[in-house]
Amino acid sequence: MEIKILRDILSANDTIARRNQGRLDEHGTLTINIMSSPGAGKTSLIMQTIARLKPKTRLAVIEGDIASRIDADKIHQQGVPVIQINTDGGCHLEANMTENALNNLSLEEIDLLLIENVGNLVCPAEFTLGEDKKVMLLSLPEGDDKPYKYPLMFSQADVVLINKIDLMPYLDFDVGAFSKAVSGLNPRVKIFPVSCKTGEGLEPWFAWLEDEIKGKKSRRGKK
Ligand SMILES: Nc1nc2c(ncn2[C@@H]2O[C@H](COP(=O)(O)OP(=O)(O)OP(=O)(O)O)[C@@H](O)[C@H]2O)c(=O)[nH]1
Ligand SMILES: [Mg+2]
Questions:
Q1: Is the pTM for the entire model greater than 0.90?
Q2: Closest CA to 61 of 78, 83, 39, 36
Q3: pLDDT at position 4 over 80
Q4: In ligand 1, which atom is closest to the CA atom of 46?
Q5: Could you tell me the distance, in angstroms and rounded to a whole number, from the CA of residue 42 to the centre of ligand 1?
Q6: DSSP classification of residue 144
Q7: What's the CA gap between 119 and 78, in Å, rounded?
C-alpha cells in the first residue's frame, strides 16, 4: 500500500516536471538543480556564479528552504530576480512548487535559472523538477565516505563540486579516493574541486555552465 502511494506521488511529480521542462525548453532557459547537505555551499556557489556570469548572462534564482528568506535576500542584493519557496517542513523541492515559481518569472528574459534545493543529501535526488542538469556539492568537512553512504544523489549528478578545498590543510579528506568512489557510481560525472570562499577552481565550473547555456540556446534557436 505504501509503495503504491509513493509511486503515485512520484508519477504525479514527473508529469509536472515534464510540463516545466517543456516551458523551459520553449524559452531556451538552461535550468540547474543544485543539491547538497545543509551548509555545503549552495548559496555561496550561486553568489560566485552571479558575480562572474551576470555581466553577460541573464540569470534568475529559485531558492528552496524549509523556512526563512535569508538566501533569497542575498541573491536579491545582487540585483538578480529571485523567488523564495518555503516548504514548511518539506525536506526537498517538488515539481509543483517549481511550477509555481516559474509562473512568477519572465522566462523569455532568463538564460540561466539556478534552483537551490533544500539542504539535504537524500530526498532532493528523488524528485525531478524539470531541470536540464543536476549539480551537487560535497564539502570537505562532510567526509570523503559520503558516496558510499548516500549513493543516489552522487549517481544522478551531472556535476559534483568538491567545495571548501581551502580547508584541505585542516581535514583528512582524500580527493582521489572520493573522486574514484563517485566515478564508480557515475562514470559520466564531471568533478570540480573548488572553493566558493576564495574562488579557487571555479573557472572549469563557469566554462561548463557557459557551454551548457550556449548548447541550450542553439537547440532552441534563442539569440
Ligand atoms: N571555508 C569555506 N567556507 C565556505 C565555502 N563555501 C561556503 N562556505 C561557508 O559555509 C557556510 C554555508 O555556506 P552556504 O553557501 O550558506 O551553504 P548552503 O549549502 O547554501 O546552506 P543551506 O542553504 O543552509 O543548505 C557559510 O558560512 C559559507 O561562508 C568554502 O569554499 N570555504
Ligand atoms: Mg543556501
A1: yes
A2: 83
A3: no
A4: 15
A5: 7
A6: T
A7: 22
